[in-house]
Amino acid sequence: MAKKASKSKPKATATKKRNPFKISKQNKIILGSLLILFSIALFFSFVSFYFSWEHDQSLLSEFKNRNEEAKNLLNKFGASISHFFVYKGFGIASLILPVLLCLTGIYMFLGLDKKGLAKKWIWGLLFLIWFSIAFGFFAVESPLLGGLVGYEMNDFLQDYTGKIGVLLLLIFGLIFILVRLFNVTPEGVAEYFKSKRKELSADFRSARPAEDNDIEDDIPLGIDDEEQVLVDTYTHKEEIPHLNKEEDDFKVTVPKEDEEELAMEVEQIVEEPEEIDVLASKLVDDFGEFDPTLELGNYKFPTIDLLDAHGVSGGITINQEELEENKDKIVETLKNYKIGIAQIKATIGPTVTLYEIVPDAGIRISKIKNLEDDIALSLAALGIRIIAPIPGKGTIGIEVPNKNATVVSMRSVIASSKFQKAEMELPIAFGKTISNETFVVDLAKMPHLLMAGATGQGKSVGLNAVLTSLLYKKHPAEVKFILVDPKKVELTLYNKIERHFLAKLPDSEEAIITDNTKVINTLNSLCIEMDNRYELLKLAMVRNLKEYNTKFKARKLNPNDGHKYLPYIVLVIDEFADLIMTAGKEVETPIARLAQLARAIGIHLIVATQRPSVNVITGIIKANFPARIAFRVTSKIDSRTILDAQGADQLIGRGDMLYTQGNDVTRIQCAFVDTPEVAKITEYIGSQRAYPEAHELPEYIGEDSGTSVDYDIEDRDKMFREAAEVIVIAQQGSASLIQRKLKLGYNRAGRIIDQLEAAGIVGPFEGSKARQVLIPDMASLQQLLDNEGL
Ligand SMILES: Nc1ncnc2c1ncn2[C@@H]1O[C@H](COP(=O)(O)OP(=O)(O)OP(=O)(O)O)[C@@H](O)[C@H]1O
User: Fold this and answer.
1) Which family does the record assign (predicted)?
2) What is the residue-wise DSSP string for 670-710?
């Protein structure tokens, strides 16, 4: 079939090219003029036929005889053709034929659209028949008016319907023509009469004062003298109350709405190309579309063999015994509570098996839901989750963990066609659902992700799965990560891809942020980046990053105006609770701002936390993170905080997770990617040619920079001296250093730094950079403090 179709295609185009019916413009002019002239000839011969037919009729058989001459204007030709059309045809109505032919000629001559012409022909022929029958009916005595067709048709119709029937048919024909062709409606006719009356009365009124009484007498006005034109003073409507008999002289003609509908040729509007478009298309023609990946044109995406299969070669192994056992237990338990089951079905997933049950009619769902703990007890298994009812299915689901869970390897999900073929901006393969389908979502659509789970339940593996997915799908030019890792060990492996995939503040040494104080600067810098990007989007008159980049690739945005290809930025914060504890409100504000506004400009946040308590995941943060993942948590309250539903406390850990992006909660087994695998991937990418620097974020200069604080020596912190020593020894003016070495809180360390600045030991705040230490060694410090009288 497909073959056939593809074969027939070129043929069709070939015939299209050589269309035999297509008449060239010259031929159209020739043919058009021929038709016009022919129609004129016809017209004259038809008209003159009426004056000469008696004489010419006898000559019809003498057509070839050159000595005989007909009286018709077009001689024997005219006599013959007129005889055919007028006498044997349609009578006087045949005059419509030359009109139609003439019109066709004009259309061809001028090359007008043929659509309107067809309509005219249809109406013309209808008229031809109607007139022919009408003349045949009314002018029986003069058969030349109706022609043979008119006569015969009358005869035929009258045999069946009688005279009255034919008359009614003719009236119907007339109404049909008036309504369809001239759009005549009763209201239209009434309106016409009204306007005519108005005109009349106006004429009378204007004529009256100028006229002498004598003249008035002489000229019949058609209105009785006494009957004045009444002017309704209220509505200003003028009325003529009665028209006298003479009014009959006025002929009423129905207004004809332009009899012939003029065919209009609509010329295609060709948008004038804007100067910028012309330039852009020229640039694209010359250089091709802008390719952001060109700078690292030889970049090779990580290969699948860098990932481990984790001993899982085939699919899930089904343990029939276990299935039967669980089924029996469920049926029995429910029976104990007098709940009968009409049907039961099992779907085996990698970690849990879903038993879908249809209870007997009349059983209340809440009853089963309340038995959750009892069922779990009788099945002697952890992690039973009851979904009553399963959304969109009308059944009740009981998820029972498998005795031997199957590890879902990252390799299997990355290799899946669902992920490979995913046409998403930022595709993430999380793992497999309960029905063993690969679960792929678009981070760009989420647009931010909140992850929570008690320690050791698979959060870090989850984060790695997210990052790995993106590394397998995205070129270094397309996405940049900002990694915040207070635990300092989880994400260090990504240091190797710093110059490929990471973004950092200018002058900061490490791309992966492990110091909570620096997070604030990074977040604020991201806010600046966000504002800058919005500005660029506004200038480019586009609504989101995708449109912007498409426009930029098409070379419609001039880099000289500050436009550049904008990569997606993914900010990953591993231990959010820790960040909130140390930096509090200072981070919450920029995070909330980013979460609220950054979706359109391609900045996406992934925030993971161990403690999903309400003071960490505040309302404002929750409201802006519609996509949430819960690994196993310790309490129902935590589950509610993160998912707005319970269930996360029932998970079995080791990557067993619940995902929600709104209402539905999906249970997924997170793909497992081990640290050595991440090491191999980062090694593979890191060993390739990279950009000279990590992607640079805009510089952020803190509000308090440059403000030299004056502290009274008496008010100095008790740990001031120790802090000064720490700073001078390390030659690094950072609050976090004091925090770590002296085990102080963030706020206190910050205050000490300010006091050190006031004492002239460290320099002023320099944005993301550590403050400069102004004292070179311990001896100088000692001297300074002694001078102060301490
Ligand atoms: N998807 C998974 N499949 C199989 N095992 C997993 C999975 N995820 C995690 N695990 C197991 O759980 C262990 C702990 O996981 P992970 O380090 O991700 O926990 P975590 O939640 O990050 O803990 P913490 O918050 O303390 O860092 C892993 O070492 C691994 O053995």
Assistant:
1) Belongs to the FtsK/SpoIIIE/SftA family.
2) EPB--HHHHHHHHHHHHTS---SSPEEPPP---TTTT----
